[in-house]
Every structure is written in structure tokens, then in C-alpha cells.
Amino acid sequence: MLVPFLIMLREGIEAALIVGIIASYLKQTGRGEWMPAVWVGVFLAAALSLFVGGGLELMSAEFPQKQQELFEGIVGLIAVGILSSMVFWMRKVARSIKYALHESLDAALAGSKNQTYALIAMVFFAVAREGLETVFFLLAVFQQSEGSGAPLGALLGLLLAVGFGVAIYSGSMRLNLGLFFRWTGLFILVVAAGILASSVQALHEAGVWNHLQGVVFDISALLPMDGPAGSVLAGMFGYQDAPTVSTLSVYLIYLIGALVLFFMPHTPKAGKSVQPHPSSVTNE
């Protein structure tokens, strides 16, 4: 429940920030009449995310066992790729995202024709990326979870994100976005390592990957996966009580590499100022 809650909270706040930045800029520049087009873009992006998520879930329900395992493995790998890119992309652009959105908004409204469609498309693609990232992650988590805990956690995270977004936009709440994205990003990388290991195991059960299947250790008697603590660890971090060489290897290789990159100081490209743009959305 905690994993989907935090992911939906983070992704929801990202989406709320995007919409809030656009809405504030339109209001500040006297272009508030364009807000209906912004909401059309938001609703279209949400509809696409729901359609893709529902379609993939319905499609996977019809698969036989081995194809189901293959589907879970592929979705898990996609989720790891998306989660990783999301964390490092936000780390890179967090200080300039507000300025970039302002530029995109000005460009969309600069032409004399099709301004409405340009604005809808700009908002749609900005929000749809967040939605599709969330869809693939939640599919990977739901496939590894039982009961209603994961969907409930995702719903609570979304509702809280909406509340935070409204509070931040209205000015009644200030959130240190730098710290928020940094620590949730670190948590996401640990979760992604577990999803990657589970995906490799799913590919083995599908008959696609059959290498390095020797068991490294077996602590099922001490901390079984179907026990209270084991099930929580499995749901949050992909814990396995009897990991194979392949699952443990990919877990450690990914996690160590990702953490090294995550804590490595970010160096702006040559020719660009190292100072954040004054319209930064973070308060690091």
C-alpha cells in the first residue's frame, strides 16, 4: 500500500505542478481565457492513461499462465525503465521546469492560427507523460500484490496530491520540492530494483530466461515471503526469501549503479549557467 501511495503522490504532485505553473502563468500574463483549453488537455491526458491502463489489464486477464508471466516480466521491465528515467529526468530539470513550461506556453500561443489546439496538445503531452509513467508502474505493482491494499494506496496518494496541488497553487502551503523529489526519488530507485528482480523471476517462470537459477541463500524458515513481514517487504522492495543468482545479481547491479548516479553531483552542460533560473519550482 505504501509503494503505490508514494508513487501516486509524487506523480500527482508533478502533474499538479505542471497544471499549476501553466494556470499561474496564464493568469499573470492576462490570458486567463485560455484555461478551458488547459483543462481539455488535462482531461484528455487522464482519459488516455485510464484507457491504456484498463486495456492492458483486460488484455492480460485473458492470457494463459506462461503468457501471463511473460506479460508481467515485460511490464515490469518497462516500469523500471520509466521509473529510472523519471527520477533522473526530474533531478536534471527540476530547477528549470517552470521556465521551460513558460517557453512552451508562449510558443503554443504565439501563432495566429490553431492556438487552442496547440495549447491543448502542449498540456496533453506534458500531463500524459506523468499519467503513462504511473500506469506502467501501477500495473507492475498490482501484479505483485494481492487484495485491495495497493489500489487503495494509489487512490489515497492521488487524492492527497490533488489537495497538495490546490494548496500550493492557492499559496496556502509551501512545500520544499527539492527535498520531496530527492527522497521520493531515492525510494523509487529501491522499489525499481525490486521490480527488476521480480521481472527476471517472471521471465524465468515464462520459460524465457533460464540462466543463473541457482539459489544463493534460503531464509524462508526465518522470514518467509508469505508471512506478515515478508509480504510487506516483498510488496515494497521485491524481497525474495530464496533469491537466485540472476535475481540477486540484477537487484544489486541496478541498485548500486542507480544510487551512484543518483548521489553523483549534477554538472550542468558546458555553456549553461550553473545558477537555477529565477522561476525555479524547487527550494533546494
UniProtKB/TrEMBL annotation:
Gene Ontology CC terms, in alphabetical order: high-affinity iron permease complex
Q: Does the keyword Transferase apply?
A: no
- Highest rank taxon of the organism: Bacteria
**Record's Pfam families?**
FTR1
Q: Name one GO molecular function term.
A: ferrous iron transmembrane transporter activity
The residues that cross the membrane are 6-26, 38-58, 70-89, 117-142, 148-168, 180-203, 245-264
Task: Kindly give the InterPro entries that the UniProt entry links to this protein.
Answer: FTR1/Fip1/EfeU (IPR004923)
**Keyword terms, alphabetized:** Membrane, Transmembrane, Transmembrane helix
Membrane-topology annotation of the record? Multi-pass membrane protein
Q: Report the locations given in the UniProt record.
A: Membrane
Query: What PANTHER family does this protein map onto?
Result: IRON TRANSPORTER FTH1, PLASMA MEMBRANE IRON PERMEASE
Q: Which family is it part of?
A: Belongs to the oxidase-dependent Fe transporter (OFeT) (TC 9.A.10.1) family.
Name of the protein in question: Membrane protein
Species in which this protein is naturally found? Pseudomonas syringae pv. theae
